[in-house]
Specification:
The complex is a heterodimer. Chain A is an all-beta fold. Chain A has strands at about 5, 10-15, 20-25, 30-35, 45-50, 55, 65-70, 75-80, 90-95, 105, 110-115. In chain A, strand 5 and strand 6 (about 55) form a beta hairpin. Helix content of chain B is about 0%, strand content about 60%. The chains are: A mainly beta, B mainly beta.
Chain lengths: ~120, ~110
């Protein structure tokens, strides 16, 4: 069964460093998303991406964050200068259409630890 | 602003019992509602998706209902097993983003 894959599964980085989280969405999907979950808290929406541009973003997704689809298969989330409060599990998701019409499939997540 | 609330926050039941998890949401204008399972430190596994026009969905021992007008959903688990122990998340979809509840942490006692 097709699945969304995320790498790495766990990343430790020093405060102030840049990190790139990688995702390979399901191959025929056109809509891509990033969510995050701080330990013990709700899963929160960060950004949605369609047709090579951001379609919506939350207030969490500030100038420190960016997303990119550098080729036909990868979807990345970059955090330019990490802060301690960026420590969280980051989930990538994809869907064939917008999620109002179809189910979004989630990856297994990347646990980011900022020290 | 859409808010999703799940009650109870935690639940422990003996193996074999049937149980119900509750979810409520404040804005009934949703496209669909989804139940997920999350094991500790792990990702999100989709269990059931109910479109806004539907009233319920079933998968094996799981049954989810949706009452959109009252802003409620329930997840019914029949004949619970220790392997069902996990956190169950309710999530609603609106405007191409999914809003999650905080989850119910379920522990099935052997």
């Amino acid at each position: 069964e097709p699945e969304v894959t995320q790498t790495p599964s766990h990343q430790v980085t020093q405060m102030g460093q840049e990190v790139i989280l990688r995702c390979v969405p399901i191959s025929n999907h056109l809509y891509f998303y990033w969510y995050r979950q701080i330990l013990g808290q709700k899963v929160e929406f960060l950004v949605s991406f369609y047709n090579n541009e951001i379609s919506e973003k939350s207030e969490i997704f500030d100038d420190q964050f960016s997303v990119e689809r550098p080729d036909g298969s990868n979807f990345t989330l970059k955090i330019r200068s990490t802060k301690l409060e960026d420590s969280a599990m980051y989930f990538c998701a994809s869907s064939t259409q917008g999620t109002e019409n179809t189910e979004a499939f989630f990856g297994q997540g990347t646990r980011l630890t900022v020290v | 602003k859409q808010e999703v609330t799940q009650i109870p926050a935690a639940l422990s039941v003996p193996e074999g019992e049937n149980l119900v998890l509750n979810c409520s949401f404040t804005d009934s204008a949703i496209y669909n509602l989804q139940w997920f399972r999350q094991d500790p430190g792990k990702g999100l596994t989709s269990l059931l998706l109910i479109q806004s026009s539907q009233r319920e969905q079933t998968s094996g021992r799981l049954n989810a209902s949706l009452d959109k007008s009252s802003g409620r959903s329930t997840l019914y688990i029949a004949a619970s097993q220790p392997g069902d122990s996990a956190t169950y998340l309710c999530a609603v979809d609106r405007d191409d983003k999914i809003i999650f509840g905080k989850g119910t942490r379920l522990h099935i006692l052997p």
